[in-house]
Amino acid sequence: MELSSTRLPQETAKKLTRWQQWLGLGQPAIGASHSDVELVAGPTRTFADETALLLRSRLQAYALVNLAMLCFFFALSWFVFVDHILLGFRIAAILVVAACYAAVRWRQGLTARALHGLELALLLDLVAYIATMMSGRIIHFANAGDVISLTAVQQGYMGGWVLLVLTYGLFIPMPWRRAAAQLLPIGCAPEVLLTGLRCFRADVSSVFARDQEYGFSVLPLVAAVAAVYAAHLIYRTRQIAFEGRRFGQYVLAERIGGGGMGEVFRADHLLLKRPCAVKLIRPDRSLDEQTIERFEAEVRATARLSHCNTVEIYDFGRAADGTLYYVMGLLRGMNLDQLVKEFGPLLPERVVYLLRQICGALGEAHASGMVHRDIKPSNIFAAERGGMYDFAKLLDFGLVRQGGVDPVADLSSFGGSPQYMAPEQFSDYATADVRSDIYAVGAVGYFLLIGRPPFGGRWIKELHAAHAHQAATRPSLLRPSVPLDLEEVLLRCLAKAPADRFSSAESLRAALDACSCASGWTAEQARQWWRENPPGSARGKCASVETVA
Q: Residues 433, 497: contact at Cβ < 8 Å?
């Protein structure tokens, strides 16, 4: 399910992503993957952990900006104004900022305490730089009796104080108490510094008029108050965003998928520290009674299943704002659609290895009176479970029918994926039975062998006509290495008449067991393949096979 009915322009989406990341509000779900689950790993993160991660990136940016400004003004004074006042001190201050930037940028494993130490060192260095440079120049022009230059220097450095305070409050994530403890004294520092110069140096006092001393020194304090308020707003907004990702004992992380029934997020259980996947339907998404009933039917149907090749349901509930959610196991690996698109068609023996497991999951569902009705490559996951690879998981029972009655069927439409639907689902959707699922399994097997569904078409009517009347091209004509016995099994699954197909998932599994290549793919081979081909390693280039175009 998309976030809105209108897709944002690509450039606008990118800008929104950058601004949300800068503010620490997370990344919007624009252009996210449409798989239900995917390879996601990582420990549970608290709000303090997220703040530490954000502090590192912000501190790096803040140090880089200040380093660039200091280098610019140093070059300007050296080459343009030939001004060598406090030259050694300026170089030392630049080196401290550069060292802070390098530590944040390249040192790995910095703790939150170390980051706060670098943050404080950077701030004190910048404050010392501005205070020392302003004092040195004021004393220099006071000795020369140059009131005009002294006034210009004072006003210029007051602008520097204001910039320092505002950028620090906006860049560095911190609660308002710490912001006030650090920024308010810095805002008062110019007034204290000027008062001290006037009291202890007669040459400065003699050329300082009252309006010169107090006219602009109040600006840094005003900026400090504004920066404290801005830091509070940003920090509080991040807290609200973090709390908004909590559903009972679960904290949502990144969005990892979506579909017609909602969105899927990676999540963590607060007490068990167990990663999981949470599927949501938010109340602002046409949440009518039919949608609620369908969602609850999916949860109840899936929760009753216990087969190891069916996705596990841990929890179900409704949030305070009306959002429906259920919690399922977080799978590591790829769905079969991703697997084929990234690595190309699979070996016949591997196809049999995966389909036999799906038959086991369907066998339990069918025995319980359930028909899945939306079997497709993206709803089958090749996962890693307890050291076992190519462990098939059947997902998304959102279109399940129970006991011969579909409580949410719309008789004026159909549900499912047209590329993998049995012919009767297009015209008699409500009465589709277990043989419709058998047809879909055959279509998925065809896709895994050839790299495309058995029938193509841009429109639903074209696909309906193809499924109902066209004979699927024999896989061996497109890929000569496909065994004839496996080909016959898949073509029987794709028979137009339900009576000509396998009558049950158990009979289909028995036929797959009898194929000559049934023992050609083992758990050890699966483990070796995944070690050599982790997700993303193909970089979108499918492995070559001997398929005929």
A: no
Q: From CA 547, how far away is CA 309, in angstroms rounded?
A: 30
Q: Is 83 a catalytic residue?
A: no
Report how far residue 67's alpha carbon sits from residue 85's, in angstroms, rounded to the nearest whole number.
19
Q: Is the pLDDT of residue 400 over 90?
A: no
Q: Which residue has the higher pLDDT, 153 or 518?
A: 518
Residues with Cβ < 8 Å from 423, sequence gap 6 or more? 439, 464, 467, 468, 496
DSSP code, position 37: -
Section 426-451 average pLDDT: 89
Q: Which amino acid appears at position 83 of this protein?
A: D
CA distance 251 to 180: 30
- Retrieve residue 463's tokens: 């696909």
Confidence band (pLDDT; 50, 70, 90) for 35? very low
DSSP collapsed to 3 states, 413-472: CCCCCHHHCCHHHHHCHHHCCHHHHHHHHHHHHHHHHHCCCCCCCCCHHHHHHHHHHCCC
**What are 304-315's pLDDT values in tens digits?**
888 999 888 888
pTM, 2 dp: 0.58
Question: Is the CB of residue 338 less than 8 Å from the CB of residue 440?
Answer: no
Give pLDDT, residue 402.
Answer: 52
Give CA separation, 206 vs 142, 148, 202, 209, 490, in Å.
8, 14, 6, 8, 100
Strand partners, 418: none
Residues 353, 527: Cα–Cα separation, whole Å: 13
The residue annotated as part of the active site, out of 268, 337, 374, 437, is 374
Would you state the structure tokens that stand for residue 417, as one six-digit string?
A: 């994926």
Q: Provide the terminal-to-terminal Cα distance of the chain, rounded to the nearest Å.
A: 34
d(CA 455, CA 507): 25
* Residue among 63, 155, 168, 157 at smallest CA distance from 118: 63
> Counting every residue, how long is the chain?
549
Could you give the angle at the alpha carbon of 13 between the alpha carbons of 8 and 14, nearest 5°? Answer: 155
- Residue 286's region, left for phi above 0, alpha for psi from -120 to 50, else beta, is left
3-state SS assignment for residue 279: strand
How many other β-carbons are positioned within 10 Å of the β-carbon of residue 158? 21
